[in-house]
Amino acid sequence: WTQWITFFLYGIISQSRAAIDNIGKLLTIKMRYDQKLNEKRVSRNLSMTVERLFSTPIITIPSVEEHLGLTYHGAQVIVDSLKEMGILKELGRRQRNKIFGAHEILEIVS
Asked: Could you tell me the pTM of the whole model?
């Protein structure tokens, strides 16, 4: 039993260290994004969308539209701004129903 428990605990320690490392990386990204947003003095809706990327790093224009209660065009402006800032990238090459991802966050959580 002792060997099994020791093995199990080492696994927990390893996973915990990896989680702590990932949290540190995400906090660094968050601080960098906050700095970008503050420098550009962006709208509250854009800031709220960036916050949401940390829980939902893949979005669509309709998902932004629904989350913020905006028109499609308003949501598209938010997504375009985030693409210009380098926070979002288009995933795939669709003509319609485009999907966007917060690539830096995705690299850490996937």
From this structure: 0.83
The burial class, CB within 10 Å (0-12 / 13-18 / 19+), for 13 is exposed
Q: Return d(Cα 58, Cα 82) in angstroms, integer.
A: 13
User: How far is 29 from 54, CA to CA, in rounded Å?
Assistant: 10
Give phi and psi for 98, each to the nearest 5.
Answer: -65, 150
pLDDT at 73: 96
Q: Which residue has the tokens 């915990």?
A: 16
* Collapsed DSSP state (helix, strand, coil) of residue 73: helix
DSSP run (H or E) holding 100: strand 99-101
Helices marked H in 1-110 — which ranges? 2-40, 44-53, 61-68, 72-84, 103-109
Closest CA to 62 of 73, 53, 46, 50: 73
Crossing angle (nearest 10°) for helices 44-53 and 2-40: 160
